[in-house]
Amino acid sequence: MTKRFSDDELLALSLLQHIVFCERQCSLNSNEQLWFDNKLTVSGSQLHRRVHGEAPRREKRGDVVIVRELMLCSHILGVTGKADVVEFHKVPSAGVLIEGCDGFWQPYPVEYKHGKPKVDDCDRVQLCAQAICLEEMLGSEVPEGALFYGRIQKREQVVFNKELRLRTQDSAQKLHELVEGGCNPPAELRDCCNQCAMKDTCMPEVTGSSRRATNYIDRALRDQTE
Ligand code: SF4
Question: From ligand 1's centre to the CA of 96, what distance in Å?
C-alpha cells in the first residue's frame, strides 16, 4: 500500500525543484534554512508579483476559469504549496464541477518562471507535483499543464507522462529522506553552480565535510571578529 504522509510531515512543494537542481542546495535550504537571493531569484520574485499583483484570485475568461495562488497538498507525495495559476478549461465531459459555472472543467496548472526553459527537469517536476496534488484534491486526472518563461515570454506545454510522474515521486521520496537525515550532501562543483543563489555560502572548503554549513558560517564569522 502507498504510504500516506500526515499533515505534520508535509514539506514545501517548492523544495522539489531544488532537489532536482542540486541536493545540497535543497538541503541548505530545508535543513539549514539558508537562502540568499541572487539576480535570478529576485527577478523570479518580481515576475510572481506581476502575475499575482492586483489580479483577482478567480476570474472567468470565456471557456477558461483562472484561479491564482491556489493552495495545494498531496499526502502521497508529502508536499504542500501554492500554485501560481490553475486554469480550468471547459470540456464536454469528465473534468470537475466549479461552483457558479455550468458544465465540466479540466484543471491545467501553469507555473511562472522568470528565465528560459532549463535543460534539467526541475521545473517540470515541480509542475508535475502540482498536478498530482490537484488529482488527489479534486479526484480528476490532470494530464498536462504549462510553464511560462518570462525571458522568452512563451509557454512550454508539459505532459505528465509516466516517466515524469515517477521522477516526481522519486524526488519527493528523496526530499523526505534528506530532511529526515538532516545532513548536508557535500558540495560538488558543476556548471549549474554559476546559477546558484547559494554559491557564496556553499564553498569548496566544506566539500566532503560532514559539518553543518551553519557551523562553518559561525566559525567564519568568529574568525573575522577575533
Ligand atoms: S553552489 Fe553548486 S553544489 Fe553548492 S548548492 Fe549551489 S549548485 Fe549545489
Answer: 41
Q: Which residues pair with 70 in a beta bridge?
A: 83
Judge whether 168 and 16 are in contact, CB under 8 Å. Answer: yes
**Which residue lies with its CA nearest to atom 3 of ligand 1?**
187
Ligand 1 pocket, mutate which of 27, 202, 212 (most atoms under 8 A from CB)? 202
Task: Assess whether the C-beta atom of 197 lies below 6 angstroms from ligand 1.
Answer: no
Where are any strands of DSSP class E within the chain?
11-12, 58-61, 64-74, 79-91, 96-98, 101-113, 144-149, 154-159
CA 59 to CA 77: how far, in whole Å? 29
0.85 surpassed by pTM: no
**Residue of the CA atom closest to atom 2 of ligand 1:** 193
**CA–CA gap between residue 79 and residue 191 (Å, rounded):** 29
**CB of 19 shorter than 6 A to ligand 1:** no
| pLDDT tens readout for residues 5-28 | 999 999 999 999 999 999 988 988
d(CA 16, CA 78): 11
- CATH architecture assigned to 7-186: Alpha-Beta Complex (3.90)
